[in-house]
Request: fold
Amino acid sequence: MKVETMKARTDTDHRHRGWRQRLDVPVVTAFGCIVLLLLFGSLYSSNFLSPEYLLQQLKVGAFLGIVATGMMLVILLGQIDLSVPWTVTLGAMMASAAAAHGQVGDVLAIPVGVFCGLLIGIVNGVGVAYLRIPSMIITLAVNAVAQGLMVAYTGGFAPGDSASPAMRYLAAGTLVGVPNAAIMWLITGGLAVFLLRRTTFGRAVYGIGNNETAAYLSGVPTQRVVMSAFALCGALAAFGGVLLAGYAGKAAQSMGDAYLLPSIAAVVLGGTSILGGRGSYLGTTAGVILITLLQSILSVMQIAEFGRQIIYGVIIVIMLLLYGREGTVR
Amino acid sequence: MKDWRFHLAEQRGTLMALAIFVAMFALYVANHPAGFTANVVQTAANKGVLLALVAMAQTLVVLTSGIDLSVGMIFILCNCVASYVVSGSAVATALGITAVIAVGALCGAINAAIVIFGRLQPIVTTIATGAVYFGTALWIRPFPGSSAEFNSVLADALTGKIFDLVPASIVVLLGVVVLVWLPFQGSVLGRAVYAVGSSEQAAYMSGMPIRRAKFAAYVLGGMLAASGGLFLTFFTYSGEASVANGNTYTLYSIAAVVLGGVSLFGGRGSAIGAIFGALAFRAIGDLLFVFNVDPLWQPLFQGLVLLVAVSIGSARLFQVRNRLELFG
Reply:
């Protein structure tokens, strides 16, 4: 059964019937806002509609896009991963550290970074799935541990190792004019869509997000699915960090701090319910583009940092008020 | 079940937090070179009270089964506001303090309005409003500093010792508990906050004032975070719009709430537990200091202690007879 039909049947508060039933309101609204933002920007400067600018935005957005992909998996389960900031940093630092080991290091840099993220994700997953610790707490604690590990490892300074050539190529290079980072995002996104729509794992993720007890009674190995989702989230966050290190040339302390709240905001702006069980990957993509564009336009317009923060927050609230409202208690 | 056992069971989380704190603090003063002196206690109290106030604010929201990720930013915003208005004569200072608390209440009211009437999830709402509050703080205080006539007499009095013995900050905290938390907890609104957190549906069906209860929880939370911001100003004599500081306090407040035995699912726990949770969490850092742990390893130990502390709760899994109970 397709998600849309399932959703329409289970969602009794759904007021839009008929043709509107098939229209994904959040996704359409999000894309509408993207167009509005671009039009608004083009009033300021025609550069906003140039292909170079748009490609540049895709490249910058790719890092957030990859991190948000993992976050979306976890949010679909009705959980949350607050360990993203230091998982991103840890992935970047471990990959750069591996890259320092000559030729072997160059080859292994990316796998090592992603693998470390996977381990962090597995710790989160074991805590949530098997120890039944609320995800907000265990991921918070794991974030603190990851931070502690990295501070102890680097001595609190930016590590001296720099990114491997492969990392630089994937993050900053281009292939026939298209930034490689954007291609990486496309591949990640394609795999995520396949995983969510065409595999039992994906169905199980939606099922658990809707009702974990029901999913368990239907024979879904809920604990394994939850753990795998967290592991994937960790791996993707670390992969985002690896690319980010390639983009910047090297890893830095707290480079991941700027990714936690935007990734949650992107997923939610894309129409995924924070309670889990509902949402499409297309929406998350829209959310990521929206947030990237918003940040870019605000900084191009040379609005001071405080103004950017305020506008950013207000826009998220307004957009969510348009379509993110929950039902009332009855 | 006998009456006292019932009451004991209800306070188990708080008592656990108290026990953890007492054990850690005892270990701390026992190993401190200066021993159990008023100065050692004062330093520990001043550090702990900041987090304790923010943790109390977080508790109120968590009790309604929400979460406030903007609490650190309210704290920072009020710190910046206080660095301007807590100055001049006694009357001006009093007005300034009122203004700071009002700012906190306003922030809480905005959160509450969006959550209650906008029907958005607290977690996403407060992410967004947190950005707004931080932006405002940065706006009024782009660079760290304070007003020329900052009332440092009051600041010294409130961070010092009464009769050279009792830390004034602890007395203030006690005052907040006795004058604000205990009456609130016992009031109809306070009971409604617990009811909403346990089951919003049941609370609604029972005719509880659920909207007013939630509103009160957020507004009171904002005011408590504002008192935390005031105290930060008293300690540092200045206001600083630091995003790192805001995020740290938000995360630590959640950690303190968890250590304090407040259920993140709502309806269970007490702000008093959260206070001990906050003091215990602060004591971790102090312990590492007296045991001469390399400062570089401190974040790791702090994280590991937190990890172990939150895993203790899963001991209940051994009592589960039916796997379906897991999903409850």
Observations:
- Confidence is low (pLDDT under 50) at residues 1-16 of chain A.
- Chain A has one domain: 25-40+49-323.
- Strands of chain A lie at 174-175, 178-179.
